[in-house]
């Protein structure tokens, strides 16, 4: 008279594996990213430096910089570059007129490096949680 060998073990293993998957899925936080048009309807232009005020950004959110190609650009800088309105050598420059930049956790700084534009308020500092 034979009993199925390992049938209890297989059933227990399947049940344990299923419960483990359910527990893991319950602990995964689904975070949706948000896209923000920098400067809202006015786009990336002079005087946008206060645009981030009152907004909450998260890592993975996307900043969309819309502007007339050839008139402006977007340069990723550090805090010193932001304060001085000078892009350090090797800074990443975007110039498509419709640039999309995904935020990393922490502080991010962006300026327009066309002479006089950053000094005219064409810069933003963003903190992403």
TrEMBL record:
Domain of life assignment: Eukaryota
Protein species of origin: Ananas comosus (Pineapple)
Protein name: Plantacyanin
GO molecular function (one): electron transfer activity
PROSITE patterns hit by this protein: COPPER_BLUE, PHYTOCYANIN
Keywords, alphabetical: Copper, Disulfide bond, Metal-binding, Signal
A Pfam family annotated for this UniProt entry: Cu_bind_like
Signal sequence coordinates: 1-33
Record PANTHER family: BLUE COPPER PROTEIN, OS06G0218600 PROTEIN
GO CC terms: plasma membrane
Residues covered by the Phytocyanin domain: 34-129
């Amino acid at each position: 008279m034979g009993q199925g060998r390992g049938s209890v073990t297989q059933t227990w293993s399947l049940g344990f594996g299923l419960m483990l998957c359910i527990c893991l899925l319950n602990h995964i936080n689904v975070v949706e990213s948000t896209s923000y048009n920098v400067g809202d309807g006015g786009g990336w232009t002079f005087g946008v430096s206060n645009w981030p005020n009152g907004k909450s950004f998260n890592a993975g959110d996307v900043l969309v910089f819309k502007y007339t190609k050839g008139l402006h650009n977007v340069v990723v800088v550090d805090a010193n570059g932001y304060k001085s309105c000078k892009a350090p050598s090797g800074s990443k420059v975007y110039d498509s007129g419709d640039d999309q930049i995904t935020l990393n956790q922490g502080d991010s700084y962006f300026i327009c490096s066309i002479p006089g534009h950053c000094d005219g308020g064409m810069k933003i500092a963003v903190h992403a949680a």
